[in-house]
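Researcher: If convenient, please comment on what follows.
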Amino acid sequence: MTQDNNNGSDARRVDSEQIDLIDIVVQLWRGKVTIGICIIVAILVAAGYLFIAKEKWTSTAIISQPDTAQIATYSNALNILYGTTAPNVSDLQTRVVDRFNSAFSALAESLNNQEKPEKLTIEPVVKTEKVPLQITYQGQTAEGAQQQLAKYIQQVDEQIAKEIDVDLKDNIALQIDTLGDSLKTQEKVAQEQKDLRIKQIQEALKFAEQANITKPQVQQTQDVTQDTMFLLGSDALNSMIQNESTRPLVFSPAYFQTKQTLLDIQNLKIDPTTIHAYRYVMKPDLPVYRDSPKRALTLVLAVLLGGMIGAGVVLGRNAIRSYRPKQ
């Protein structure tokens, strides 16, 4: 008997739940006009938003370190300036692209801090590798985003080239001063050596005159030392003094190597337009799909939101009507 009562109670509960669901569906169907109006209003609002909302398009470019030819001027200049101590091409490629990355990051930060921020980003394609680098720019039109991204890349590239040009000119001026000082020092040392040689011959001449030696007293001149130079005789010593006075300075091979390096540096000409800090892997693309607003997604959300609001209005209104008689 108890079991039958429980079964009857469960059946009534199920029937009650089914009746409630059906009632909700019926209420919604009867209020379909209200729901439809809410959906239409939501669609109109979404359409207005789509009409006034600013479009956002993202152009993307991928760059890597420059080719050897793109930094050949820079590399050759450093080789002339520093010789064997100059960095190799691989190191220069890494340094230049790192310099480009830093300058571009600074530009992106400054653009983001403007009154009207611009979204410009640069980051490695592979997080664990320095290159290649992916650069993106978000604009209001597809063409505008593409052109502006190419403009910013060229702007930073020209900035790096000018900075390198300034650095090279500073280094050239420094090296010219250093090599010039080195040549002056070597010339001074050579002059002092010449003066010392003349003094030594003059001292030997005094001894020869005091000893009344006018003719050479030795057969082999290569055996003559500083102490025995007077044995060459006063005639020979006078002739040597005259020759030494007019004789040009004697320099070591290092002097001429220094002079050649100085001439190479003085004739060094840098053209910043031939220096580039990057190489395109992918040029700025023309975006096909805009980032926002998404028309299809916006309209779908408008329909769903309008339907939910309409259903809430219908159910709420019916609930209020059915609640008043009970009071």
The chain has one domain: 54-292. Residues 77 and 268 are 7 Å apart (CA to CA).
